[in-house]
Specification:
It is built from five helices and no strands. The protein is mainly α and 74 residues long.
């Protein structure tokens, strides 16, 4: 599951998967904006079947946070 999340984010932010890890910060390292968070949420729901509530996705700081939420809600 973690590799799928990394692949999704690499595609969205035009990065190599090898550049991303759990420690990667969405705002600081990937320059994610508010709309990116909505896109991440929608894409994870479509591709992984995990619906992340808006109040949770906006608090995500790192890729590890996404791993944790997907594991919890998946």
């Amino acid at each position: 599951m973690e590799q799928k999340i990394v692949a999704i984010l690499a595609r969205m932010f035009n990065k190599a998967e090898a550049e991303l890890s759990g420690a990667t910060l969405l705002k600081e390292d990937l320059n994610a904006k508010s709309m990116n968070y909505l896109e991440i949420s929608a894409t994870l729901e479509i591709e992984l079947g995990v619906d992340i509530p808006l109040d949770r996705i906006t608090k995500v700081k790192s890729i590890q946070d996404l791993f944790d939420i997907v594991q919890e809600l998946g």
